[in-house]
C-alpha cells in the first residue's frame, strides 16, 4: 500500500472554491481501481492549510490517478488558488 500526503496552502479568498473542487476530485478518485482512501483534511489552527490523504494499492494506481480527467481538471483549477506551490510525500505502509 502507498500513501501520498499532499500539502496545500490556499489563498483565503479561494477556500470555498478549493474545497468544492477538491471534494469533487476526491469523490471521483474514490471510484478509481486501486484507490482505497482519498480524504481532504484542513489544519485546525491554520484554516488555509489543507492535506490530501491518498491511499493506493500500489505505485501503478498512483500513476494511473495522475492521468485521470478529474485529477487534471482539479490540478488546473486549484493551481491559481494556491498561496504557495503544493508539495507531497509518498509513504509505504509497513
TrEMBL record:
Known InterPro entries for this protein? Answer: ABM_dom, AI-2_Isomerase_LsrG, Dimeric_a/b-barrel
In its keyword annotation, does this UniProt entry include Isomerase? yes
Task: Please provide, alphabetically and separated by semicolons, the GO molecular function terms listed in this UniProt record.
Answer: (4S)-4-hydroxy-5-phosphonooxypentane-2,3-dione isomerase activity; oxidoreductase activity
Please give the superkingdom of this protein's source. Answer: Bacteria
Q: Name one Pfam family in it.
A: ABM
Q: Which GO terms describe its cellular component?
A: cytosol
Sorted alphabetically, the keyword list is: Isomerase
Q: What is its EC number?
A: 5.3.1.32
Q: Where in this chain does the record put each ABM domain?
A: 2-93
Q: What is the official name of this protein in its record?
A: (4S)-4-hydroxy-5-phosphonooxypentane-2,3-dione isomerase
Q: Which organism is it from?
A: Acidipropionibacterium virtanenii
Q: What is the lineage of its organism?
A: Bacteria, Bacillati, Actinomycetota, Actinomycetes, Propionibacteriales
Amino acid at each position: 500500500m502507498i500513501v501520498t500526503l499532499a500539502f496545500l496552502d490556499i489563498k483565503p479568498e479561494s477556500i470555498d472554491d478549493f474545497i468544492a473542487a477538491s471534494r469533487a476530485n476526491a469523490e471521483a478518485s474514490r471510484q478509481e481501481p486501486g484507490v482505497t482512501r482519498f480524504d481532504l483534511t484542513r489544519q485546525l489552527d491554520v484554516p488555509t492549510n489543507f492535506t490530501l490523504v491518498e491511499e493506493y494499492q500500489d505505485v501503478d494506481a498512483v500513476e494511473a490517478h495522475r492521468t485521470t480527467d478529474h485529477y487534471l481538471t482539479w490540478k488546473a483549477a486549484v493551481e491559481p488558488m494556491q498561496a504557495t506551490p503544493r508539495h507531497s510525500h509518498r509513504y509505504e505502509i509497513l
